[in-house]
From TrEMBL, chain A:
Signal peptide: none annotated. It is a multi-pass membrane protein. Residues 1-34 are annotated as: Disordered. It is found in: Cell membrane. The keyword Cytoplasm does not apply. The keyword Membrane applies. Keywords: Cell membrane, Membrane, Transmembrane, Transmembrane helix. The gene is livM_1. It comes from Actinoplanes nipponensis. This is Branched-chain amino acid ABC transporter permease.
TrEMBL record, chain B:
Pfam families: BPD_transp_2 (PF02653). One of its GO terms (molecular function) is L-valine transmembrane transporter activity. It comes from Actinoplanes nipponensis. CDD domains: TM_PBP1_LivH_like. It is found in: Cell membrane. Signal peptide: none annotated. This is Branched-chain amino acid ABC transporter permease. The keyword Amino-acid biosynthesis does not apply. It comes from the Bacteria. GO terms for biological process: D-alanine transmembrane transport; L-alanine transport; L-isoleucine import across plasma membrane. GO terms for cellular component: plasma membrane. It is a multi-pass membrane protein. Keywords: Amino-acid transport, Cell inner membrane, Cell membrane, Membrane, Transmembrane, Transmembrane helix, Transport.
UniProtKB/TrEMBL annotation, chain C:
This is Branched chain amino acid ABC transporter substrate-binding protein. Belongs to the leucine-binding protein family. Residues 1-23 form the signal peptide. The lineage of its organism: Bacteria, Bacillati, Actinomycetota, Actinomycetes, Micromonosporales. PANTHER family: AMINO ACID BINDING PROTEIN, LEU/ILE/VAL-BINDING ABC TRANSPORTER SUBUNIT. Residues 40-357 form the Leucine-binding protein domain. Gene3D superfamilies: 3.40.50.2300.
Length: 391, 316, 387
């Protein structure tokens, strides 16, 4: 996106003392708090804490058993493991979109398109309703689904390379709408009739019951969580690699990056492809859990919500994206089946209204997101100083 | 593909497309104005339109009018139309200012990153449309038949009705006045100054905060007029009417060159026509897809829209 | 900054706590059981919010009315109402359905209203063995999945389509018919059957986007006018139909709009205005409530302060069918399911008997046509043959 209008610097006289004071303050801020403490620990402690955190995440389906706190956390109107699974694919989408928006700075409003491509490929290959009549298993269809999603990222990314900021946003939005309309209106993709009997992931318990049945969503959540952990590891590595640094350069200043020898086209396409791959992952998991899907799932609001999640959580920060993705799924689900204390109507009618208000409040108090990217937080601090008096 | 149908119906499709396009263009002005000055997609603009579309219905409701009423006498129709317009303009204007105050100003004071603005706007949009949705039980609300469409003149199979003429004339007039205002008046000069270079404008004594409010207000006024026209043309409004048409209006704004007033007019009319032609040619289900395909194609050739970005600035 | 974060989290926690407390309050309703067959729940599963909530609300209100009347007769809250909002979306339905089956007091389900969400949720109900009676999901293939708990209290699209086609051909004697649909599973399926029945009388076809996705129908209207058709069959729901009817009238088209049960709703007249809606024909695989007698129509109005909508009466019947079964001592989902497979229940809208696939017994399939009158309500027109 283009820079905000007020960003040009107010007269900045480089008084040495003042600058160093500011830097000192930054350093203090940066090293303060949980995160600073975390950064000071030795790598083994850090790794141990990460593992502990992952284990806790795997135990989340049973959080309702904790007295007092547990029942406040679990959702009422929707099965808690299902809510967790929903969160898991929202988190996946947020992680993927974070690569595109947060790392590479490409504003993508149509991210749900890749989710749809992944889910539809699986459905086409595996559902008995499909014209292909292949009826593959879920596991066989997944790699194809991911490959097609990635390819679609490249195909849609390529023509948009010239576009900047908001133009990119509307074009990606357009692509997602085109995908939705094509899914609705072509015979092959079955529109609203959808694909039924999409197979679930394989595996059986000792007694012959399938692990991934219809009645229990816990295995799906665990599968989702495992995928998320793999994606986090992959994305972290990428971000710390040459690719990640190139993204950063592109995001901050595309021209400067190009002059410095960063191949912007290549790395932008990388961002699109990786984002699409992760979005596709969300899609194939969704199809595998759902068993049935049709064109109604892939509405535009879905993309917008995920984007809201990424920015709300902290664009450019993996932990932030996870938190944001989880919240956009959790808040509405948590509001289901609850009565408001005044009119005694169910709050679920209000859930998106409340959600909208929550988004505004969070963004006003944390413009850089709940868990901001460290670099972004510093930028913001600089800009806050520069802000010209408005009235 | 139904070419003969398109050729046969070309006249009627053109006039209905122009009427729809005029509404889209008026709506698109709000996006374009705010973008021109702040370089932001004002996502909540759709809800500014939505509340306008309800405001005039509520006023007409005071007079006991609903979708089943008979059409009143000409004189009272004019009065009612004016009242409805005023109500819609006032409510839309207030909503636009309110959105700016709640969702944008606090962020601007903190100089937040541009994405944050987009997200608060999405939040505001969700909040308003969903609140309306809850309050109306997500039902549709019918519009009183203030204007019984009558053919004013007929060319071939093209019947031009009084309503279509009213919509197109009112839209063009509003845009002409807006254009004059921005290009000729003192306040308009302030808007152009801030759009060109906010900091220099501030140094030259332009009150930036006031200019920004003014821009939101102007966008709101235009959306209010568009909302009344929409009500009369479609005959129904609903909590998500703003969102639906908002996507089209935003597309139109980008198509013409966002930030460019005449671009919004061109984009809106073009989109209205194209949607009708495409619906006739490929089937009504492809109407929206066609507008997005056109948008993508045009942006590939002209990455800043047909007329380019400019709100009173000479820039490619 | 940490303070701010703490405050934000604190704020969320407070919201959660308030909400949780409210939920606890609502849970602690009276639960004292009067007689042996009390203390159970019947569930409604369907859209109560979201863009397709209207049909869901119609059904839920009919369902709840039946249970309220039953409880009043018993003098206590014998059977509790449990509502599950799926928003009508297949993506949301499974999670809500799993929540439903976790409640072991639920013996039976009225819903899901839409075919799409049925595909997603019914496998879960089937796994849990809870019987469902859907008052409005008419997709033909639903009964071909081998679900034992699936019951459909209305005729499927295969019955309604030919009836609509026959009516257009034999009663209206239309020679030029324009067929359009909204691409929903329901609308597309129905219009395909109608097209087949009408054969060469169909002069042109078109498709629109779904309810709430499109409001400007100028191009469709122009096609209808140009085709010189005297009848437009629209497979879709009442809202789009109302907008299309209004636009057609505005454009001076004098023909008749015909549609299926998805259009049989006062909402159509609300969108079109009564003057334009008058004479619009809808078919419905149901009997007119006033024919069945009883006080349903007035009771419904008294309870909800709105007129009964499409399928309110079928939902009322479905709930009463369950209640009769529970009253007879079928107090487990399994027993209730067995009861459903044998019962022959005479309700206000129809008499119900299910085949082994859960379809309505062909002898009881009735399709009526209804006509919009000058007050915007649908009045029964005539019964039409389905073959």
């Amino acid at each position: 996106m283009t820079t905000e209008a007020t960003s040009s610097p107010a007269p900045q006289t480089p008084v040495p003392g003042a600058v160093s004071a500011r830097e000192k303050k930054n350093r203090r801020q940066d090293s303060g708090g949980v995160r600073g403490w975390f950064g000071r620990q030795n790598p083994w402690v850090r790794a141990g804490l990460m593992v502990l955190f992952a284990v806790l995440a795997f135990l989340l389906p049973y959080v309702g058993e904790i007295p007092l706190i547990g029942p406040q956390i679990v959702t009422q109107g929707i099965d808690w493991p299902s809510a967790l699974f929903n969160m898991s694919y929202y988190v996946l989408l947020a992680l993927g979109l974070n690569v595109v928006v947060g790392f590479a700075g490409l504003l993508d409003l149509g991210y749900v398109g890749f989710f749809a491509v992944g889910a539809y490929t699986v459905a086409l290959l595996s559902s008995p309703d499909s014209v292909l009549r292949t009826e593959w298993g879920w596991t066989a269809a997944v790699p194809i689904g991911l490959a097609v999603a990635m390819l679609s990222g490249l195909v849609l990314g390529y023509p948009t390379l010239r576009l900047r900021g908001d133009y990119l946003a509307i074009v990606t939005l357009g692509f997602a709408e085109i995908i939705r309309i094509v899914a609705t209106s072509t015979e092959t993709l079955r529109g609203d009739r959808g694909f039924s009997d999409i197979p679930h992931p394989p595996g059986e318990f000792a007694d012959g019951k399938p692990i991934f049945g219809v009645a229990d969503a816990v295995p799906y959540y665990w599968l989702g969580l495992a995928v998320i952990i793999l994606v986090i590891l992959g994305v972290r590595n990428l971000d710390n690699s040459r690719v990640g640094r190139s993204w950063l350069a592109i995001r901050e200043d595309q021209e400067a990056a190009e002059i410095m020898g960063v191949r912007t086209i290549k790395y932008k396409l990388w961002a699109f492809a990786i984002g699409a791959f992760i979005g596709g992952l969300g899609g194939v998991m969704f199809a595998g859990q759902q068993g049935f899907m049709n064109s109604q799932t892939f509405v535009l609001q879905f993309s917008i919500l995920v984007l809201a999640g990424v920015v709300m959580g902290g664009s450019g920060n993996i932990a932030g994206a996870i938190l944001g993705g989880a919240l956009i799924s959790y808040i509405p689900d948590r509001l289901r089946g609850i009565q408001d204390p005044i009119w005694h109507t169910d709050l679920f009618g209000f859930r998106f209204a409340i959600f909208g208000a929550v988004i505004i409040v969070i963004m006003i108090f944390r413009p850089q997101g709940l868990i901001p990217s460290r670099r972004r937080a510093m930028e913001l601090k600089d800009r806050e100083k520069e802000v010209a008096p408005i009235e | 593909m139904n070419f003969s149908g398109l050729i046969q119906d070309f006249g009627p499709l053109t006039i209905t497309g122009l009427a729809q396009g005029a509404i889209i263009a008026l709506f698109a002005l709000g996006y374009t104005l705010v973008y021109g000055v702040l370089r932001l997609i004002n996502f909540a603009h759709s809800e500014v339109f939505l509340l306008g579309s309800y405001a005039c219905l509520i006023v007409w409701g005071f007079f006991g009018l609903d979708q089943n009423s008979a059409t009143p006498s000409t004189l009272s129709v004019i009065g009612l139309l004016l009242l409805g317009l005023v109500a819609a303009i006032v409510i839309s204007g207030i909503t636009a200012l309110g959105v700016e105050l709640v969702a944008y100003r606090p962020l601007r004071k903190r100089n937040a990153p541009p994405l944050a603005f987009l997200i608060t706007a999405i939040g505001a949009s969700l909040f308003i449309s969903e609140t309306v949705g809850v309050m109306t039980q997500r039902n549709i609300k019918g519009v009183p038949p203030l204007i019984q469409p009558r053919d004013v003149f007929v060319i071939g199979n093209m019947h031009v009705t009084n309503l279509q003429i009213l919509i197109i004339v009112l839209a063009l007039m509003s845009m002409f006045l807006l254009d004059r205002f921005i290009n000729r008046s003192r306040l308009g000069r302030g808007i152009r100054a801030v759009a060109q270079n906010p900091d220099s404008a501030a140094l030259m004594g332009v009150n930036k905060g006031r200019v920004i409010s003014l821009v939101f207000l102007l966008g709101g006024l235009m959306a209010g007029i568009a909302a009344v026209m929409y009500d009369l043309k479609i005959g129904v409004t609903r909590f998500d009417a703003g969102f639906l048409l908002g996507i089209e209006a935003f597309t139109a704004a980008v198509l013409g060159g966002i930030g460019n007033l005449r671009g919004a007019l061109l984009g809106g009319l073009l989109l209205g026509l194209l949607q009708n032609y495409a619906a006739s040619l490929f089937g009504t289900e492809w109407l929206h897809a066609a507008s997005f395909v056109l948008l993508v194609l045009i942006l590939l050739v002209r990455p800043t829209g047909l007329l380019g970005e400019s709100l009173g600035r000479a820039r490619a | 900054m940490r303070q701010v974060l703490a405050r934000a989290i604190g704020g969320l926690a407070v919201i959660g706590l308030i909400a949780g407390a409210a939920a606890c309050n609502s849970d602690s309703g009276s639960d004292d059981t009067a007689s042996g067959n009390c203390g159970y729940k019947l569930a409604f599963f369907g859209a109560l919010t979201g863009s397709s909530a209207n049909l869901g609300v119609n059904i839920e209100q009919g369902f709840e009315l039946a249970i309220n009347q039953y409880n009043e007769k018993k003098g206590s809250t014998c059977i509790e109402v449990a509502k599950f909002d799926s928003q009508g979306e297949p993506g949301v339905a499974p999670g809500v359905a799993r929540n439903l089956v976790a409640d072991k007091k639920i013996l039976g389900i009225v819903g899901p209203p839409f075919s799409g969400e049925s595909e997603a949720a019914d496998p879960i109900f089937e796994a849990a063995g809870i019987p469902t009676v859907t008052p409005s999901a008419t997709r033909v293939s639903l009964s071909a999945n081998g679900w034992k708990t699936f019951h459909r209290a209305v005729a499927n699209d295969d019955a309604q389509g030919p009836a609509a086609g026959n009516y257009i051909k034999n009663v209206m004697k239309a020679e030029k018919v324009f067929v359009a649909n909204d691409q929903s599973a329901y609308g597309a399926g129905l219009s395909e059957v109608v097209e087949k029945t009408l054969g060469s009388a169909v002069v042109a076809k078109d498709k629109t986007e779904a309810d709430g996705k499109q409001t400007d129908f100028s191009a469709l209207v122009q096609k209808v006018v140009s085709s010189q058709a005297t009848v437009l069959f629209y497979g879709g729901y009442y809202q789009n139909a109302g907008l299309i009817r209004k636009a057609l009238t505005t454009a001076g088209w004098k023909g008749t709009l015909v549609g299926g049960d998805g259009m049989k709703d006062p909402g159509l007249a609300k969108a079109a205005g009564n003057a334009a809606a008058v004479g619009t024909i809808t078919t419905c695989p149901c009997s007119p409530p006033e024919k069945a007698g009883g006080t349903f129509v007035t009771d419904y109005k008294a309870k909800w302060n709105v007129d009964a909508g499409t399928y309110s009466d079928v939902a009322f019947d479905a709930a009463n069918m369950f209640l009769q079964g529970i009253d007879a001592g079928n107090t487990t989902p399994e027993k209730l399911n067995t009861y459903l497979s044998t019962v022959e229940y005479k309700g206000i809208a129809n008499t119900y008997k299910f085949t082994d696939k859960g379809e309505l017994d062909p002898n009881y399939i009735k399709v009526w046509t209804f006509k919009f009158d000058a007050t915007g309500n649908t009045i029964a027109d005539q019964e039409v043959p389905t073959a």
